[in-house]
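Hello Y.,

Per our agreement to keep a running log of every chain we model this quarter, I'm adding this entry. I've kept the format consistent with earlier entries: sequence first, then predicted structure.
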Amino acid sequence: MEANIVLEIPMSTVPEPVSFAALDACHQQMHVYLTELAALAQHIEVLGVDAKIQQQAASIEAFFSGTSRQHHADEEKNVFPLLLASGNAELETAVRTLQQDHGWIEENWIELAPQLRAIASGNNWFDVAEFQHDVKVFVALCQGHIALEETLIYPESKARWAQAVANRVSR
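Predicted structure for the entry above:
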């Protein structure tokens, strides 16, 4: 009796197509929200909290707690693995730095998010000086992170995806 052997390739080994348009658009949104966050912090330092600031705080908190976190998860799943497997030491180091950044961004966000929620709900338990510091650290970390992705990682990843598609078409 002859056995039929069927080889199944797990779906996890086939990367999903990357929507760089969506990733780029998210970076643009991040820039806008980071600018708003810095302005919000300055406003609070000078003028305190008002209804408009409460609404902005809620919007900023929702974006970074939702969209931004999902963006990082998408990069970890769809962009970074191909570059980590590239055999290019510079790219691998850059990706490892970005992965570490994701951890630091999350750690900073864990400190900052409750302060923004407090501002949004009109609570005044947060320390203004600590809030100012946390905002500066978060904004600087995110801006540096985005710059590395946009100048090295995304262009390299886009080129590698284009080559993979071209290789599939030519088969």
